[in-house]
Amino acid sequence: MERAAVIARHRTALNRADLSRPFRTALADGVLGPDRTVMDYGCGRGNDLRRLTDMGFDCTGWDPVHATSGTRREADLVNLGYVVNVIESAAERQEVLRRAWSLARRVLVVAARLTDETPAARSTSPFADGVLTRIGTFQKFYDQQELRTWIDQVLEMPSVAAAPGIFYVFRDPEERTEFLATRFHRAAAAPRLQVRKQVYSQHCELLGGLARFVSDRGRLPAPEELESFGAIVEALGSLKRAFRVLQQASGVSAWDAVRKARTEDFLVFLALSRFEGRAKFAELTHELQLDVKAFFGSYAAGCKAADDLLFSLGRPQTLDEACRAARVGKLMPGALYIHTDAVAELPLLLRLYEGCARSYVGTVPGANVIKLGRGEPKISYLSYPDFERDPHPTLASSVSVHLQTFRVREHSYRDHKNPPILHRKEAFVSEAHPSKAKFARLTRLEEAKGLFDDPSCIGTRDGWAQALRTQRLALRGHRLIAVKGPLSRDSDPQHRDGSTRAFYERRAVAYAAATLKLSMDHWLRRFATRLPAGAAVIDLGCGAGRDLACLAELGMQPVGLDRSARLTAIAAGHARTPVIVGDIRALPFPDQSFAGAWASASLLHLNRAEIEPTLAEARRVLRLGGVLFVSMKQGRGESRSGDGRWFTYVEPDEFGSALTAAGFIIVDAGTETPEAALTGDRPWISYLAVRH
What secondary structure letter does DSSP report for 393? Predict the structure, then answer.
C-alpha cells in the first residue's frame, strides 16, 4: 500500500487534438447519436467533453484528479475510456467498472490498452498485475479476450467487441441484438425497374416505399411496419398483389436475390451470436422476430441452419474451397486478400469466417485489406493508408486473429526501413470500385514491361524501386512512364541524399551564417511549455545548431543530429551540447529515449514515401506523451533545386494525416515562421504533436 501511494495517476491524462478512439468508434457505429446524453467517467483534462459539446452533445464528465467538481450522473452513454488500465488495485478496478455501469441507461463503453502496447521491459518495472512506467504511472495491459472476460464477469452481462481494446455493454438485450444484427446487414438498393408497367406507373409513389422496405428487410412488411400499408391495400387490394406489381416491373429473379441476400445476412448474425451469447426468441426485437418467421419458419430452424454453417468452418478443406471459388479478391497460395469494401460480395461461408474474427476484435481502425487464411483459421486486418492514391501502397500495420487460439497480434511496419507493398490492386476490389479500371490498366502496362517477371524481388518498397530503375521506368500516379536520357537518380535515396548532403558539406559555413541569424522563438517556447524542466530532447537535422542552443537555454538537455559532418562540428561549437552525425530515418537511439523531438526544416529533404516511416522512427525514440515539433514547406510535388538539394512539398491535410498515421495527436499547428525569409514565396507549415 505504501508503494501504491506514490503512483502518479495524475500523469496518465493526455491532451488530444481530436476525439479519443472510444468516442470515434461509438459515433461510427451509431451507438452515440445526437439524441443521447453522455457521461465521460474519468474524463482526464476534458478534451473529449469540449469536442463533444462543440458538436452539440449534452455531456458531462468527472475525473478524480482533473475534474473533481464534475458530476457523476446517469446518461444514455457512459464512457470508461482507458481508466481501468491505470488503476493498480484490482478491487478498485472492479468497483469503478460497476459504478460506471450503474450510471449507463443504455450503453457503457469500456476501453483499455492491449498487451501489444506494452513498453519495452527496460523502460518499466513489474508491479501488482501490471507495470510501473518511467514517469511513475501504473499500466495494466490486457489481452483482448482477457478484457472481455473480465467485463462480462464483473458486470454479469455479455459485452460486444467494438474494436481492439474497446467493448460495448448494452442495458437492453433487444438493443444489443439489434446492434449485432445490423453489423452484418449489407446495404442494398431496390432492383432497377425493367419494364414500365401501367399499374406501377399509376401507384409508383406508394410502391416505392414498399420497394425500399423489401430491399432492406428481404420480406413483406407487417401492417405496423409500413406507414403506407393501408393506402397500398386500399389502392391495390392486398400487399401481396402490390408486391407482384413490383416483381412484374423489376423481374422476379431480382427480388429473389434480395430475399436470398437478407436470409444470408440473418444466418451470419445468428451464427455469430452463438459467440456473443445468443438471445432468446423473446429477446429479439419485433422486426427480427418477423424476419425469423419469414426466412426460416421458426427460431429453432434458423439457429440449426446457422450452427450447421458455423461448424462447417472447422473443416480446412471447406475454407480452402470457398477461397478458391470466390469471385472477388486476390488468391494467393496461403490466403485470399480482399479490400474491406468488397467483403459483402464474398460467399456466405467466407463472410461468416471474417465475421468470426470481427466479433472477436471488433472493427480495426484504418484496416482496408483483409487476409483470409486458407490453410489455418487466421485472419489479418491490414492497413494501407494510401491504397487509393499510391499505385503500390505500403503496409503500415496489421492486426491478426487466430480463430483456434484466439490470440490477437498487432504489428506496426511504420518503422521498417523496407516495408511490404501491394501489386495488382484491381484484384482486391469489387467490380463496382470506381478505380478498378485504372488499377487494371496500370497492371497490364507493368506486366508488358516485365516488371513482375521475378516476384521474389518486388514485394518490398526498395525491391520495387530497383525493378523500376532497371527498366528505366518511373511512376507518376497510376501512369507508367519511360525515363529518357541519362537515368535520373532522384528516385534512388543514396544518390538523392548524396546531392543534398554535398550541398551542406560544401556550403556549411555560409549556410550557418545565414540561418543562425533567424529565430524560431515562437515555436520553441510552445514546444518547451509542453515539456518538464530538464527534459531530454533530440534536434533532428540540427544544422548549424541555432535551435539546439535555444533548447539548452530553455532548460532542456538537447542532443543534436545531422547528416553533414561539417555542420555537426559547427553546431557542437555553437550550442555547446552533444551533436552526432546520423540519419533521421534510422536513429541510433533506444526506444523512448527522449521526451521531445525537434525537426525544423529537415524532413522536407526526404522522398515523399519516406516521410511517414521517418515520423514513426521519431515516435519510436519518444516516450509516451512525448512532444514532436516539425516544419515543412507547403505545396505539391517534389523537385531538386538549382543548388542540388531535394525538396518534398506537402499540403496541411496530407501532412496532418501522415502525423496521425505515424501515431501522433496534433495539438497545435500554424503557417507562420521566420524562415520564410530564406525560402522565397513558399509558405511553411508547422506542427506540435504528442506521441500516443
Answer: P
Q: Which residues contact 136 (CB under 8 A, 6 or more apart)?
A: 6, 7, 8, 11
Q: Are 581 and 563 in contact (CB under 8 A)?
A: yes
Please give the sequence-ordered ranges of beta strands (E in DSSP) within 413-531, or none if there are none: 473-476, 479-482
Element (H or E) spanning 166, and its range? strand 166-170
Beta-carbon contacts of residue 515 (< 8 Å; ≥ 6 apart): 543, 544, 546, 678
Quote the CA–CA distance of 228 and 405 in Å, as a whole number.
Answer: 51
Over the stretch 201-244, which tens digit does the pLDDT of each residue have? Answer: 677 778 888 988 999 999 999 999 999 899 989 888 899 988 98
> Residue 590's pLDDT is what?
84
Q: How would DSSP label each residue in 174-196?
A: HHHHHHHHHHT----PPPPP-S-
Radius of gyration from C-alpha coordinates of the chain: 29
Please, what's the b/e burial string for 179-211 (b: 16 or more CB within 10 A of its CB; e: otherwise)?
A: bbbebbbeeeebbebeeeeebbeebeebbebbb
Q: What are the tens digits of pLDDT across the range 425-481?
A: 999 999 988 899 999 999 999 999 999 888 878 889 888 988 888 888 888 888 888
- Measured in degrees and rounded to the nearest 5, phi and psi for residue 480 equal -100, 120
CA distance 619 to 588: 13
Could you report the per-residue pLDDT of 620-670, keeping only the tens digit for each? Answer: 999 988 999 999 988 888 777 777 788 888 888 889 888 998 999 998 888
Cα–Cα distance measured from residue 116 to residue 663, given in angstroms and rounded to the nearest whole number: 14
Q: How many other C-beta atoms are found inside a 10 Å radius of the C-beta of residue 430?
A: 16
C-alpha to C-alpha distance for 408 and 399, rounded to whole angstroms: 7
Helix (H) / strand (E) containing 268: helix 252-276
59 close to 45: Cβ distance less than 8 angstroms: no
